[in-house]
Amino acid sequence: MAAPTVVSSPGKVLLAGGYLVLDPAYSGVVVSTSSRFYTVLAALDAPPSSASPPIQIRVRSPQFEDATWVYAVEFDSAAVRVEQLQDPAHPNAGKNKFVHLALQRTLALVVELKSAGTTQNALGHGLDITIVGDNDFYSQRAQLAAQNLPPTLESLSKLTPFSKTGVHLSDVHKTGLGSSAALITSLVSGLLLRLGAVSADAFEGDAAAAAASKDRKLAHNMAQYIHCLAQGKVGSGFDVAAAVFGSQLYTRFDPKVLAPLMAEGADASQPLAPVVSPSNKAWDYKVVPFSLPPQTRLLLADVDAGSDTPSLVGQVLKWRKEHPEDAQDLWDTIDSLNMRLARLLVGLTELEKKDPTAYRKAVKYISTIQSVQWLANPNITEKADHVAFKQVIEAFVDAHQTTEAIRAKMRDMSERTGTPIEPPAQTALLDASVAVAGVVGGGVPGAGGFDAVWLLACDPAGCAPEELPVVRVERVWGTHTGELRVSPLLASESRAAGVRVERLEDVRGLAEAVAL
Known about the structure:
The structure is a single chain. The protein is of the alpha+beta class. It has 2 domains: about 5-290 and about 495-515, Ribosomal Protein S5, domain 2 (2-Layer Sandwich), CATH 3.30.230.10; about 295-490, GHMP kinase, C-terminal domain (Alpha-Beta Plaits, 2-Layer Sandwich), CATH 3.30.70. About 40% of the residues lie in helices and about 15% in strands. Helix 11 crosses helix 12 (about 325-355), helix 12 runs antiparallel to helix 14 (about 385-415) and helix 13 crosses helix 14 (about 385-415). The relative contact order is 0.16.
């Protein structure tokens, strides 16, 4: 039997660009996470019985209750149909619009690109697909409580990979890392690869190679289309872009590119390839590879609350439409700060390349004191003759001040629009977190609200664990007495270039999850 095809895609955090990223005039700073969704595609040996359709696709998500869906696949001379079957073994499975549309539309594209006969031969009797997400995509509070473990990074590392949630998919508490975008990207990319529509080379290489790969761009365009179709609207697409290309400065595509496929009454048999092809110049999104500076760490927290992102976005866009001049001024100011932050973070990476020793010493130095002391501390004068050392500290100070300025402007937006973008409870939590020695800055990601917080902290090399800023932050989060309960996430920045091919045996716990 052929080896299974395994494809993974990362989650995302929008550090800067909330609301602005919806407008092609502005860009967002998007970081992809080490937490990933995995799609494992294996061949079905034969249909379950002689009465069964000759080609079936079974999709399982073993982290949830009743999460198995079975589909029949039928071909004619130039088309393919994918219909859900009633599965007696899982009568309460219901429907999964995201999975169904991904199968239906991706198979249709492959038929256009490879022919119906070739696609049918590639499917054989069908596919057995397993989809799982790293634990960070879902709140692990219940699992920690069941094992009498405190909400710490150490406790999270003890949990079984791809832990069962004990609930149905519709009832799970998500942490805001972009689970649907990562899922769709890994599934679509896995299907395209398994059926020969793209090559494995497309999902290898560094960020520059990823941004240039035509096959990867095809996977991106198709994942964007299916994600928008499943959601019923064309979003900004930064979450899918992060899942495909990794960390980046992202500028969205014009929604008109998908109009032929998403217009009311659009024919499902309408050709997909002309629209989703990478040669279609209407795909005018921009992806500039990006990474956080060396010896820094992205820290994320799950906050025990929730926000209705579409509702927040709707309110903000309504205010923007009603107050165009005020909104323009505010948007331009925030954009200027966002791009300044991006330049500063990229600049810190360049400073590290020029003088790694000075950079390392500076990071270790500022990790021991609060940001207000980074330049004010008298000890810095002893090293003032070391220009590179001071340059690094000044750049970190500037990055800190810029993140605080962005937060202030987002609170301004919150007040003007009457939306809880950075609610007072989040402000108190962030203020306490940013005050920790060695923390560069933080904020509420994406559309904001109560779902999560992010921090950028120094992560100096060669320090004892108890001296690391992450340990101090975890202590603050563990003793926080405000309105919110906070639990850290294991996720950090992913240095991989988005979607990639995996080996089943190389991913801890994946083989066991597939065997469930």
